[in-house]
Design goal:
The chain is mainly β.
Amino acid sequence: MHRNNKELIVVGDRVLVRVEEGEERTNVGLYLPPTAMDNQAVQGGRIVATGPGTPMPDPSATSEEPWREPLRSTRFVPMQAEPGDYALFFRKAAVEITFEKERYLVVPQAAILALVRE
């Protein structure tokens, strides 16, 4: 994500979410029950950026010749979430950050409960 000549890079299997503040019904039509709203166990927001995914180990790393240079670049298990999706996620797993005076949450993909894609 670019803003004011700076780039925010999301790493690993995490997503950057622009928070939707507590309403009973989300902008995409999902209903959040009052119990989820009261203790903020579940929250929703729009995904702004995603990391590349979970890195896969290089099978040649177990070679008997540890001095050998790896022949391939890093591969990743792809992310299911995409920028523009609406994510419903566990709030406790999120980390709040501020980037260029805007508030975002960094959420691991494992904490996402559901995605709404248009």
